[in-house]
Amino acid sequence: MNPNDIADAYIALWNETDGARRKDMLRNGWAADATYIDPLMKGEGRDQIDALIGAVHQRFPGHAFALHGKPDGHNDRVRFSWRLSADGGDPAAVGTDIVLLDGEGRLKSVTGFLDHVAGQ
Q: CA-CA to 54 of 20 to 30 Å: which in 21, 37, 41, 115?
């Protein structure tokens, strides 16, 4: 397990705007019964997680996720922080996610925390 590779793949997924490509990324990197939860949304299974990502793209057009700091991990868990902004501007959101991997190295669950949301 390389925390940097896992975090990079995760960020790439959230930045992918092509729905078919995003579904392939989910199929290859996430368990079929994967879960995602943060203070604003949650989903179970690849299709619901894909829908959540699509909703973020609709709500924040022109924005992209980027890693913030250095990912770390141990055993079957990875932790990293990220920021969502448009063209390097002030972030619309900053958060920290904790990932649990399954026995094959695929993402099994993600618990997200919002450290900062613009306007709140």
A: 115
Give pTM, 2 decimals: 0.95
Q: Would you say how long the chain is, in residues? A: 120
User: Could you tell me if 28 and 104 are in contact, meaning their C-beta atoms sit under 8 angstroms apart?
Assistant: no
Burial letters 28-67, b for 16+ CB under 10 A, else e: ebbbeebbbebeeeebebbeebbebbeebbeeeeebbbee
State pLDDT tens for residues 1-46.
Answer: 799 999 999 999 999 999 999 999 999 999 999 999 999 999 999 9
